[in-house]
Write a structure and sequence with these properties.
Layout (H helix, E strand, L loop, with lengths): L3 H10 L1 E4 L11 E10 L7 E10 L3 E3 L14 H13 L5 E3 L2 E3 L5 E5 L3 H15 L4 E7 L3 H26 L4
Parallel strand pairs: 2-8
Antiparallel strand pairs: 1-8, 2-3, 3-6, 3-7, 4-5
Helix pairs in contact: 1-4
């Protein structure tokens, strides 16, 4: 189990060295491949390379319709005005929910005897040569590598939100 300090350190130390060209699809699921490089603590010239796949589910629109049914007991007259305003403007408060899944069985790992920088550069060169727009190269902390993957997923959400929001709005869904 990770301590809060472990999680914070792993989250802050994670770097996406090579970002996928694609973003999370608005109307379908998206698969990303990752190469996660981590330096092993017991030897600075040993690097663990994990490879795997993460699936991003299509974003879901969450509408706060339930807000309009709140009871504002004890708030006075203005609460009724606010409730009416909320009913009329609830479309402005829609949020996008993202879901990801990765399976441990899909993850492979190998140990490479070299420095982290050399291994990362080699992997980035290979990924560029392959031209796959769905691959990410991530540098993280070995003991908390799952946190590094979560950091990557949050970055993909951040980079995809504006595009997904635009697509939903263009189709009249927001």
């Amino acid at each position: 189990m990770y301590s809060e300090d472990d999680m914070h350190f792993a989250f802050e130390s994670t770097q996406v060295l090579y970002e996928p060209d694609r973003r999370i699809d608005t109307f379908g699921s998206t698969n990303f491949e990752f190469r996660l490089v981590t330096e092993m603590l017991d030897d600075v010239h040993r690097v663990r390379v994990r490879e795997g796949r993460i699936s991003a589910e299509k974003p879901q629109i969450l509408r706060p319709e339930a807000f309009a049914d709140f009871e504002f007991e004890g708030f006075g007259e203005q609460a009724g005005v606010f409730a009416d305003w909320l009913r009329q403007n609830r479309g402005k408060f829609a949020f996008l929910q993202y879901g990801f899944q990765f399976r441990r069985s899909d993850i492979t790992e190998m140990i490479v005897h070299d420095t982290l920088a050399v291994v990362a550069d080699r992997i980035i060169s290979e990924v560029r040569a392959q031209g796959n727009p769905s691959v990410a190269v991530i540098s993280g902390i070995d003991e908390a590598w799952e946190i590094s993957l979560l950091r990557f997923t949050l970055q993909m959400i951040e980079r995809s939100q504006a595009i997904n929001h635009f697509d939903f709005k263009r189709r009249g869904l927001l």
